[in-house]
Amino acid sequence: MGGKDIALEVQERTVQGKAVKQLRNDGFIPAVIHDHGKESKVIMVPYLELQKVYQEAGKHHPLELSVGGQKFVALIKDIDMDPKKQQMRHVVFNAIKQDEVVETEVPIELEGEIPAEKAGLMVITQLDHVQIEALPRDLVDELTVDASKLVEIGDKITVADIVVPQGVTILTDSEHPIAVVEETKAQISEEETEEVEGEEGAEGEAAEGESPTEEE
Questions:
Q1: All domains of the chain, ordered by start, with CATH?
Q2: What is the pTM assigned to this prediction?
Q3: Quick one: CA torsion of 111, 175, 152, 124, rounded to 10 degrees?
């Protein structure tokens, strides 16, 4: 498992339903811990602390949750966001066991310089996370892929190009593109202009080459 242990203090929650609106006004996010088929633990988490932890852990780094006298090792499974405010409204944690394989998503990092960008081409990112499975001890904070293959228009890197550490299995389709090199709008416009000018020039030359029709 990459990085340091991340601890998060949470509190048991008795408030549910519409009453959770007041919790959010008080700076807490309602949440739940799912624990291997046992009864779920209904909790609340300080918003600012949760936001900081999520930025650090994402959905891929195990957290040490403390609630009352209990401790859980868990992953953030799902976050419900307010589409207007772009703020967290509810969080689901999944408790995990050290000897059980877990599924989660991990960010992809393009490694090294990208020749296409240095040449003024446009690199379109089509995937920034992949689904993986691994034992908790083998989970990683990111997966890397060599970006030096992105040189010319049409070049691409796919999930199959990712460097996969031992103990990690990628579940995302291996053929799924991660990044593709395309022309910039300026280059496309320039090519279209050259093409039109070329056609006009050819038409002009053809017209000059025609001999006048003689009357019989």
A1: 6-96 (2.40.240.10), 104-186 (2.170.120.20)
A2: 0.73
A3: -70
